[in-house]
Amino acid sequence: MAIRQLPEEIAARIAAGEVVERPASVIKELVENSLDAGATRVEVETRGGGQTLLRVRDNGTGILSAEVPVAFRRHATSKLATADDLFHIATLGFRGEALASIAAVSRLTCTTRSAEETAGTRLRIEGGTVISHSAIGRPPGTEMLVEDLFYNVPARRKYLSSERTERRHIDAFLTRYAIAYPGVAFQVTHNGREALHTSGNGSAREVLLDVYGLELGGSLLDIPPELTAGQAIQVRGFVGPTTVHRANRGYITLFINGRWVQDLRITYAIIQAYHTLLPVKRFPVAVVMVDLPPEDVDVNVHPAKTEVRFREADSVFRAVQRAVRATVISEAPIAADWRPPTATQPIPSLSATGVTAPTTRASLAGLQPARQFALPGTATPAASPSTATTSSAPADPSGAAKLPPLRVVGQVATMFIVAEGPEGLYLIDQHAAHERVLYEQLLSVWAEGRVPAQPLLEPVTVTLPPDEAARLEERLPLLASLGLEVELFGAGSFLVRALPAPLGQVSPQELLADIAAADLDRSPVREGLEALTVRRICKRAAVKAGQVLSREEMENLVHALEQTSNPRTCPHGRPTVLQIPVAQLAAQFERR
Ligand code: ADP
Ligand code: MG
């Protein structure tokens, strides 16, 4: 086939395909135009999932009658003047493509009136061709009516999903914008039935309650604006407490400078902020809004404008991760009857000095309440151990994450502790529970400085393969701060002189091998070396399945678990406790 220039009309349809994929993308473009026009009321109406009809009506600035036909030309926009403007975009639109694209693949009627003029305009376009153009009377603002979407693109029509699915896409978009723009009153109807109605009174919390319902909407925590106040990257919004989680990422919403975007990395920063706080394979609920200087973010990545590029992606990642983490940690419920020990107060199990390494039993016997902790490196003023504890509510009455006081009944299969509590039967995984306890203890002592070291009677020599030895060598200063005193002894050989005091008996060989094997690059989660190392240490030091525990040891362990800030999961996110309500037992025994 010879090379030919495509006719204008075909080129327009190809271009339209990039912007208008489905009814929801039309709604997105039209609503973004309304918001750019300063509207405080946006009404959306659809029929047939938006394919038969969709209408967006606003009370924004309107379009001057002379400019109406221009607005529908490709690359016609009032939002950009120079190429430089592209690098500090403050509006949602800027490409001047949306109206032209939508008009190319539908029958579109635009009625609008600028507040500066007395008469309005009505323009009708079918498949990109102007059918009529007249003056009409109407109040200031704009209404875009789009009928028979894709009537002239049958191939695209075939790809549309069911009416219900299309409606879901539309609602997903509109509810998010309603949350991010609480000052705008949104009203949405599908086939005449109201789907969403917000007051526009500026309260995002009110919209959350509306959109997510009382229970979920009410449980979300405010990201305190103080966390990032005065910084170039500001993080606002709402995040779920650790008790709220979902099976997928669909409940994570991200706005960058008022624009809903999809960004895998920043989404990951949010997920990462919950690391070890949620069960594995569960995802948080979050609406996170990041504001940063427009010149630091490039929104001109794709015609649909749902992706952005950051000039300094790492800084954004860290700002989001820290703000979310601090919010979640500071709200993690703590026990009412428990007060943090003061810095000078000796911690029982740590003050025990002895030349022989304590046994695991000794470490269980000496377990003490763990303190609220912040991961070193992610600590922000609001999340530092001292302020976090004092700023938290003493007890969260709805704190489903917290454990009530439990009475130990016994051990099953040398693996699980059986206990009784106010809400029935509790089964506790002894290894996972001990890991959680050690983890919080180690971090909390560490947050105050160094972890005390427990000297070994005889130093122990450990030899590692070269790559692991090299890795371990780099980590020696970190290990020393964790109470693990190790010296390089010769090629690949190390001398272990002391172990972290809170740990109890643990094999130095296995411990070092574990730490050296922790390969940061291959770690599935992006976390600091510190946290990774601490988790490794705790995993190795925790009591194993198969160990018989005395009643006292079990009681100490359960009591220590009750005091942790996240008793329900181990540091790796696996559950520590299974709870069977009395009602369920009764039902199983067919008691009424
Ligand atoms: P863009 O939003 O990228 O500028 P569009 O094709 O979406 O491009 O819109 C073209 C122009 O039409 C806009 O720049 C704006 O001036 C005008 N416009 C579109 N919708 C509205 C509206 N609802 N209210 C006021 N002006 C509008
Ligand atoms: Mg636009």
Number of helices: 19
Across the major sheet, the strand order is 5-4-3-6-2-1-7-8
Helical percent range?
Answer: 25-40%
Overall strand count: 22
Known CATH architecture of the largest domain: 2-Layer Sandwich
Task: Describe this structure as you would to a colleague.
There is one protein chain. The protein is 34% helix and 21% strand. By secondary structure, it is α+β, with helices and mostly antiparallel strands. The strands form 5 sheets. Strands 5-4-3-6-2-1-7-8 form an 8-stranded mixed sheet, with helices on one face. The longest helix has 19 residues, at 313-331. The chain is elongated. Magnesium ion (MG) binds at residues 29, 32-33, 93, 98.
Give the topology.
Blueprint: H1 8-19, H2 23-36, E1 41-47, E2 53-58, H3 68-71, H4 98-104, E3 107-113, E4 120-126, E5 129-136, E6 141-147, H5 154-159, H6 163-180, E7 185-190, E8 193-197, H7 204-219, E9 221-222, E10 234-239, E11 252-256, E12 259-260, H8 264-273, E13 286-291, E14 297-298, E15 309-310, H9 313-331, H10 348-351, H11 360-365, H12 385-391, E16 407-412, E17 416-421, E18 424-429, H13 430-447, E19 453-463, H14 466-474, H15 476-481, E20 485-490, E21 493-500, H16 508-517, H17 529-541, H18 551-563, E22 577-580, H19 582-588
Bound molecules: adenosine-5'-diphosphate and magnesium ion (MG).
